[in-house]
Each structure stands twice: as C-alpha cells, then as structure tokens.
Inverse folding.
C-alpha cells in the first residue's frame, strides 16, 4: 500500500545511522513537524520494512529532540531493528507519533536523578535537555550497564554538565555495582525525583530504593505493541490497584512513563521477560 | 453505508482512538470493540506476538462495558454521523439479547454484530481447545434467535474459521434470523519461545490475524457465499483495496479492515479510496456489481 503523510504519520528522512557500540546504533532523522510536538519520554512507532513483514511497527523513544527532527538510539534485538540498522542516509522511513505521555521535567522538586540501565538510557538525553531548560540545572545521572562498551551517552550527559556516575556489572568501568546500589549511595530524599528506565529487575530495585527514601520514582516501561494508540489493548501491564474500574494500564497511552507506586511489580516478575 | 468498508472489531477501539489520523466519517461504518454487560479486565500480559505477516493476540475482550460505552464512547460516533456496528459479547443468549436491546433503545448502534467466536476467553490450560459458540450449529441457532427476538436492528453474526465446513454455521445463523454473517474471526494459534520453552502468550493460545490469514478468509467467504442468501462482511488480512476487492469478488457484500490499521492507521480510508479508483478505472458504476463476480 502506498505510504503517505497523514496527521501523526510522517515520511521521515534518515540523515545518519551509525554504530555507537557493538550492536547499538544512533539514527538521526528529519521530521520537523513531529519534532515540534514531541516531548521527552514520548515515543514513535517506526516501520522497519515497506513490505508486510515485519508486520508491526517498532516502538522507539526519542533519544534527543532536535529543531528539525530527532535522534533514536537503539539496540539490534531482532529482525526489525536489524533492518533499521541497514538503513543508509537518504532512506525514507515511516514514523508515527509522537505517542505516549512523556516525562515530567518540571522544577517542582529540588533534586532530579536519572537512573539508566543499558539501552534503557535511550529516553534520557532528551529528558536531560528538558530538565536543563525547565529547571536551569542539569540532572544527576547514574549510568549502569553490563560492561564498559554498553555505557552509552556518557559524553552527551557530560556535555550538558550532568554529574555522571558510572557502574558496570563486571567492573570494567566505573564502580562494580548495580544501578539501585549507586542510587542508594547518592542518598535520594523526599525532595528528589528519580527517573528510571532499563531491565525490569533494575527498575523494580531502583524504585524500591527511591520510594523507601521518600523520593518520587517515575519509570518508563516497555511492552509489545501493535497500535501504539490505545486501540488494541495489547500493551497492558498490571497496576497495583484499580483506577476508574480498570486494573490494566496501557503502556502506549497511559504511559510509557508511570509513577512506580502504581505498578504491580510482582505481576511484572511473573510476566515473561520482553 | 455510503461505502462497503468498515473496521474489524477490536482493531479500532471505539473510533475516537483514530480521530487524530483521519475523519472516521469517511468509513462506511465503525465497528466497536466487543461490548459486554460489565467491564472486562481481559487476560494477563503478554497479549501480543508478532508472526510472519501477521500477529497473535490474546486480549481476552477487555472492554469498558456497555454503560461506559453508552455514556462515553457512543456520543463521539453519533456526533461524527458515521453508522455504528455495535459488536457484542456475552456469556449467555440472554446477555447478548440484553446488550442488543440496550444498544437499540439508546440509539447507540445502527447494526448489531454478535461475536460468537472469540478464541480468547477461556482457560486454555484446561480445555483441549476453546469451545466457541460458533463451533456448534445448535448454539448458533439459540444465540441468534435470542438476539433476533430482542432487536429490530440488522443483525450480523461473527463466526469462527475453526470449523470443518463453514457453510454449516453460516446457514445456522441464516436460518435463525441473522441478516448477515461476518467472516472470519481470528484463527486459533500459539507460539512458543524456543529458548525459554515458555508460551509467548500468557493465555498460551491466541488468535491469528493479519495478511497471513487472508487466503483462508477469502476461501471461507467464497464457500459461505455459495450457500447463503444473506450478505457477508468479509474480514481477514485486508491490507489494501485489491485485497478488499478479492473479498467482494468471492461473494462478500462489505469488508472490514482489521490488523492493518495497527500498521497504517488510515489503512481503512485508503481501502475506501482505492476501491473508488478501481471502479473508475474499470468503468464500473456500482460496487455491488463486484459482489461474487469472480470469473472462472
Ligand atoms: C515505549 C517504548 C520505547 C522503546 N524505545 C526503545 C529505544 O529507544 N531503543 C531501543 O533499542 N529499544 C526501544 N524499545 C524496545 C524496542 O521497541 C524493541 O527492541 C524492538 O521492538 C525489537 O524489535 P525487533 O524486530 O528487532 O525484535 P524482535 O524480537 O524480532 O521483535 C518481535 C516483536 O516483539 C516486539 N518486541 C521485542 N522486544 C521488545 C521490547 N523490548 N519492547 C517492546 N516490544 C518488543 C517487537 O516490536 C515485535 O513486535 C522501546 C520499547 C517501547 C515499548
Ligand atoms: C488485537 C485484536 C483484538 C480483537 N478483538 C476482537 C473483538 O473484541 N471482537 C471481535 O469480534 N473480533 C475481534 N478481533 C478479530 C478481528 O475483528 C478480525 O476478525 C480478525 O482480526 C481478522 O481480521 P484482520 O486479519 O484484518 O485483523 C480482534 C483482533 C485483533 C487483532
Ligand atoms: S499498543 Fe495498542 S493499546 Fe497500546
């Protein structure tokens, strides 16, 4: 079927698509209209092939929102991201968005700490930009990954003036520690808002530390998606309590950013890993 | 209907979800997500798996319930002046009848589509296979008669493809007073993660949809059309106008676009426009001339 521009679906142009670490790439696309409306923490749905397979679009958050488009930072996971990685500058890419709620970058708390695990760092450069713009000072950043190679975006955060705390599971760079342990050392308090994105277990333990310290904790979740728009009900996660008669929340429209307190983390443990 | 194209239940929410992409009034009708008397939470996640040129879903009929539909969702569609096909799901014939009665009484649907074929609302681990109402001609008769008696709105019965001979359930619906049938609901399927050995859906079993199922659906429509006097809404893997025309040629009177709206939110209007272009290109005056017009 002929692709075309309709509202919220754009034929974006790939401007650059380069490896940043083994199996990880950064893609810059031109999509002015979408960039004007996009907020940090929102995402888009990317069509990875013109034919009908892969059938579904892939959700990707905005790593950075630029005047003429945005940057995506992605990990090659399967067929869809493999096809993305093959795209060369000049390629036309159908993207749908911006979708989802986005982060609250507001200045209503005294201290802001970003906690990123692995590719979970992807939405945070845009958030750091937004926080700097809204609060006049950069957030602190805990950057955790399995190994040194997978510590992404450290230079970006550094350039924004963020204090960056590195940690690796194997000790190949920074501290040999998990993200939640690093957060604990930073002593968050009731005046702190923690933003977390990464593997489920990392978000759960980070939320435990933040909430125990009386801090707010906002997590950005992932789920398999079909529509990205609230229509298919495929992307739900279980909440701790009913809200307006619903116990399931949709990651695509109610999230992807949630207050960690509303998520039923035990259910997430039982749900299969993505 | 001003054109023969609607959207498949469960792939278009309650219509408002797609308002930002295009004017839903351009469709022949909007078909709602299956509505039940009480809100349903649906199955636990994960509920989706992508498959070659399609997908498996096990949503489990999560919906807001008839009250919230009437209060919050129907007014939008009424304001848009687009015909509404109210898709309903109940546990008993009485529940279906009650749902149809309420939709008619509150003027919240122009036609009823009874979903007698959802594969996702049973305990997959206990049953050897889902027992769907539309796998039994007797049950189809009983459910259809109950709904028929409750409403004067046009009544479509949506059937499962998981049967030996589609003509039998289709005829059972016709004999019990249905004004049409909708073919097909999803095909039963499952997927297992080879690494973890676990099912990819929490419900284990799900429904297969998307372009992968289109040839199966076209064949079912063709089979049913030769046995029925009542019209058929053809559904299953429609991605473009040519796909929709295939269904018309096989004997469908109208079509619904399902999973393709996930990939391309305005897929259904592209089908509307594509059919119009096809008619012009072939010098055909009315789309009805295409119905069952396959040449062998
Ligand atoms: C809101 C949101 C934002 C995201 N942002 C990023 C990002 O910025 N960078 C990045 O690298 N990844 C991101 N992801 C994850 C990314 O969508 C998946 O890695 C990608 O869909 C995998 O597709 P694939 O074809 O390569 O893998 P396959 O495993 O072949 O995909 C098969 C199916 O599973 C789905 N799927 C597989 N893994 C995931 C996952 N982790 N999350 C959701 N769906 C998945 C695919 O979309 C597809 O439908 C995000 C996910 C969500 C929900
Ligand atoms: C996510 C999803 C949810 C669905 N929900 C319903 C539903 O609530 N009621 C129903 O009658 N059919 C439901 N269906 C079936 C579709 O209406 C349609 O019959 C089927 O998907 C085949 O069409 P397609 O291949 O074009 O998607 C659903 C399908 C999908 C993919
Ligand atoms: S992806 Fe369809 S409802 Fe969220």
């Amino acid at each position: 079927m002929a692709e075309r521009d309709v509202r919220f679906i754009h034929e974006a142009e790939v401007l650059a698509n380069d490896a940043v670490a083994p199996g990880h790439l950064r893609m810059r696309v031109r999509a002015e209209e979408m960039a004007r409306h996009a907020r940090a923490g929102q995402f888009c749905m990317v069509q990875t092939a013109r034919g009908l397979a892969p059938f579904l679009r892939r959700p990707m958050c905005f790593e950075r929102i630029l005047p003429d488009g945005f940057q995506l930072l992605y990990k090659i996971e399967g067929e869809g991201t493999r096809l993305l990685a093959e795209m060369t500058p000049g390629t036309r890419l159908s993207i749908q968005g911006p979708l989802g709620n986005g982060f609250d970058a507001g200045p209503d708390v005294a201290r802001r700490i970003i906690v990123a695990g692995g590719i979970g760092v992807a939405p945070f450069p845009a958030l750091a930009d937004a926080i700097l713009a809204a609060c006049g000072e950069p957030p602190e950043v805990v950057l955790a990954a399995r190994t040194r190679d997978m510590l992404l975006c450290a230079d970006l955060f550094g350039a924004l003036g963020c204090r960056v705390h590195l940690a690796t599971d194997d000790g190949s760079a920074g501290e040999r520690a998990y993200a939640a342990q690093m957060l604990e050392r930073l002593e968050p308090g009731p005046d702190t808002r923690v933003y977390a994105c990464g593997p489920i277990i990392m978000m759960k333990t980070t939320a435990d530390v933040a909430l125990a310290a009386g801090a707010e904790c906002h997590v950005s979740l992932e789920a398999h998606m079909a529509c990205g728009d609230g229509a298919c009900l495929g992307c739900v996660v279980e909440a701790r309590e009913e809200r307006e008669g619903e116990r399931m929340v949709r990651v695509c429209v109610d999230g992807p950013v949630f207050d960690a307190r509303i998520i039923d983390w035990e259910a997430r443990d039982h749900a299969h890993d993505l | 209907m001003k054109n023969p194209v609607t959207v498949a239940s469960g792939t278009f929410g309650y219509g408002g979800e797609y308002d930002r992409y295009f004017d839903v009034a351009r469709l022949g009708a909007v078909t709602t997500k299956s509505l039940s008397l009480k809100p349903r939470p649906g199955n636990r996640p994960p509920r989706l798996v992508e498959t070659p040129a399609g997908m498996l879903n096990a949503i489990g009929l999560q919906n807001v319930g008839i009250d919230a539909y009437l209060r919050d969702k129907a007014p939008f569609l009424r304001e848009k002046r687009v015909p509404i096909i109210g898709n309903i799901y109940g546990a008993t014939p009485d529940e279906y009848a009650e749902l149809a009665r309420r939709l008619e009484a509150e003027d919240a649907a122009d036609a009823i589509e009874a979903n007698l074929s959802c594969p996702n609302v049973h305990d997959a681990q206990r049953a050897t296979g889902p027992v769907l109402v539309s796998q039994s001609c007797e049950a189809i008769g009983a459910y259809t008669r109950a709904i028929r008696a409750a409403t004067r709105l046009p009544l479509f019965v949506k059937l499962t493809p998981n049967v030996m001979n589609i003509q039998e359930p289709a005829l059972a619906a016709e004999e019990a007073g249905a004004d049409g049938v909708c073919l097909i609901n999803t095909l039963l399927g499952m997927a297992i993660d080879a690494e973890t050995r676990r099912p990819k859906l929490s419900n284990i079993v799900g429904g297969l949809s998307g372009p992968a199922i289109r040839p199966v659906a076209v064949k079912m429509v063709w089979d049913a059309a030769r046995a029925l006097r009542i019209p058929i809404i053809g559904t299953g893997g429609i991605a473009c106008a040519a796909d929709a025309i295939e269904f018309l040629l096989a004997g469908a009177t109208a079509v619904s676009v399902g999973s393709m709206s996930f990939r391309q939110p305005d897929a259904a209007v592209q089908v509307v426009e594509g059919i119009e272009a096809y008619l012009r290109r072939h010098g055909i005056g009315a789309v009805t001339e295409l119905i069952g017009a396959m040449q062998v």
Notes: Chain B has eight helices and twelve strands.
